[in-house]
């Protein structure tokens, strides 16, 4: 029996860097346009757009992110107080003359832990043979209560070189059977990460 049980997806959680590199949890502050009209949750993928700001990357088989969202800071338009929170609420009102900044894990070598689903939020798993394969994202709506993403990885993997996520390893601590792993360690595929893509935004 798995311990702990993985009951629901939770987005992408940074855990390490590939190749045994030193992992300091480094992040970059990236601007979100004032009034951006979509929620962004902790663990969601984000991408740069042409005006220099970021938005949620809603791609599944064709995502081209610059990193993973880990929180936000802004000056509340009503109270004038600085708020730091787990997720960005859609169409946030900010104080005039201020900006919204997201915390983003943007190192292309970052490894992330993510849950595997059969579709939407139903937890399933992959076998050891999935290591080295590519996979599709499942874009579930996050929770405005916890601020957490519910993005997950589809349990159908392939060698297709345009898929956005590469499976690097499985998480053995939560295995539900000898060859069924509901969580995996992944990285954003080389050509899909905006920093590795020769085409500009």
Could you explain how this protein is built, in words?
By secondary structure, the protein is mainly β. It has 2 domains: 90 residues, no CATH class; 78 residues, no CATH class. The chain has no helices and 12 strands. Strands 2, 3, 4, 5, 6 and 7 form a 6-stranded antiparallel β-sheet that branches. The mean pLDDT is 95.
Task: List the keywords.
201 residues; mainly beta; 5-stranded mixed barrel
Mean pLDDT: 95
Main beta sheet: 6 strands, antiparallel
Number of domains: 2
State which percent range the strand residues make up.
Answer: 25-35%
Count of individual beta strands:
12
What would the principal axes of the Cα set say about the shape? Answer: globular
* Helix content, binned percent: under 10%
Work out the helix count.
0
Note the gap between the termini: 46 Å
Instruction: Pick out the low-confidence regions.
Output: none
Structural class determined from secondary elements: mainly beta
Q: Rounded to an integer, what's the Rg over CA atoms?
A: 17 Å
Helix and strand layout, with pairings?
Layout: E1 13-17, E2 28-32, E3 45-48, E4 54-56, E5 67-75, E6 82-85, E7 100-105, E8 110-117, E9 134-138, E10 152-158, E11 165-170, E12 183-188
Parallel strand pairs: 8-10
Antiparallel strand pairs: 1-8, 2-7, 3-4, 3-5, 5-6, 5-7, 8-12, 9-10, 9-11, 11-12
